[in-house]
Amino acid sequence: MSEATPVVRIVVGVDGSSASVKALQEGAKFAAELGGVVDAVAVWEVPSRHATYEALGIGSFEDGACQVLNDALFQAFGADVPTTVSARLVQGHPAKTLAACSEGARMLVVGRRGQGGLLGLLLGSVSNAVVSHAPCPVLVVQ
């Protein structure tokens, strides 16, 4: 009895930035070349001052993350999101959660959102952290 070949999975971190839209496109290219799939992940967390946000009438952070994810998918692919692309929301710290989500993946793709200079040493703090801690190769797209 032969074992099934595991599906190549490319995880892409999505935060709504133009760099994360490019990361989605690059991840989809790699997945297509490898006959794999894209796991688009938007990570959201509740700010420490959540009650203050609620008092100001700011809605659900999860709903906001869902909108960011859907918008990024539309910007990357238009109305025809490839069937090999799946999307999910995960609550947690962005860098730690993306690193955990990339367990078993062929690659993690993130956008470079950093402000330059000393902040994140030219990478954003999340992209810098996942480069250091992800259990798979990381591609940083700008």
Automatic annotation (TrEMBL):
Against Pfam families, the record matches this protein to: Usp
Q: Where is the UspA domain?
A: 9-141
Known InterPro entries for this protein? Rossmann-like_a/b/a_fold (IPR014729), Universal_stress_UspA (IPR006015), UspA (IPR006016)
Give the record's family classification. Answer: Belongs to the universal stress protein A family.
Q: What's the name of the protein?
A: Universal stress protein UspA
